[in-house]
Predict the 3D structure of the following.
Amino acid sequence: MKILIVGNGGREHALADALARENTHVELIAAPGNPGIAQLARIEDVAASASDALVELALREQVNLVVVGPEAPLADGLVDRLRLRNVPAFGPTAEAAEIETSKHVAKQLMARAGVPTANAETHRTAAGAHEAVRERFGAPVVIKASGLAAGKGVIVCHTEVEAHAAIDRIMGDKAFGEAGNECLVEAFMTGEELSLFAITDGTDVLTMLPAQDHKRLLNGDDGPNTGGMGAYTPVSLGTPVLLDDVTERILLPALHALRKRGTPFTGLLYAGLMLTEEGPKVVEFNCRFGDPETQAILPMLTSSLLEPMLAVAGGARINNMSPLTWRTGASVTTVVAAPNYPDTPRTGDVLRLPDDTDTRRVFHAGTKRAANGELVSSGGRVVAITGLGESFDEARRISREGAEQVELADKQLRTDIGWREHERLS
Ligand code: GLY
């Protein structure tokens, strides 16, 4: 079984790690991969954005499956191109991926399907967005670039002054480029966030363990927003009753709306939820595995990831498949980031990493080999250290100690990943 994994982050390393643990013999190829993935896969120097070259690679290697990690190649139609050449690919088509790549489309779909989410307006002019804040929303309020903005296009504003400045940044300065051609003004929601991933054939779902991401840079959920500084799973708030409710009132109706729109979604649907006093509401949908939640979730998986992926990529239904199974205990992931992340991370620093153990996984994200063979940092989020434990506190300790052992000059990390769960459990 030959599998091509597209991407080069911690998420793709975790996907490679899970697929390498399958009972079936799996030969992994990664494009472009990273030095961590290189321990599990043959690396091909093809960028995730080079769709035509990736299709050629998949055809030349006669792969049985392509797993697309990041959202950008999905938005770019990589899965559409692979399907045209009869290559089984796990991930949505570009049109289905609009559930992530256009927040406006996502809101329309949710409205049609009756999926609970915050009230929002889409504006194509800054004047319209300013008026919405002034006349109807006030503060606190959330201002969002509608398009893809590498996780940075959502600005939570505590005052109207901040909201007007956010609109000017997105629509006037074009801080996120064309992603800011449309701007959403959205009611602020309060509660805890929860990430729920589901493998889907377009109709039915196989849900994964619920996880919680930590988007702020600093302990205590302080500092600027990042791509995610850590995650843990399971989350005790994500009870079976709550997850069934999310499946019935959010995941299945959203998939139904996508089918009705003529753009059925297959692959991994990620529901970013807010657990409000009125019940779970959607903050956003993503069209791919989340990062760093995947690095926490997949090491807990004891059943096959490959079987449902192959079924979905081959156009088969998953309604007769058994639910995914998980090890007991907990998993906590701590991200180690470069100095000056998230603004302009310093790269090129020498890096020394602890080894994997039975209870610790070291996932590479922003790493590369320098010309002299040394491992150096090459991105903002450099590595993610996952600790597995029989208890939440044990997993947390293993993750934190592993992250502290990472040798990287002026590294940044949070030492409080899972603090809410810790408080709940103590
Ligand atoms: N963890 C946030 C994301 O993957 O978008």
Observations:
- The chain has a mean pLDDT of 97.
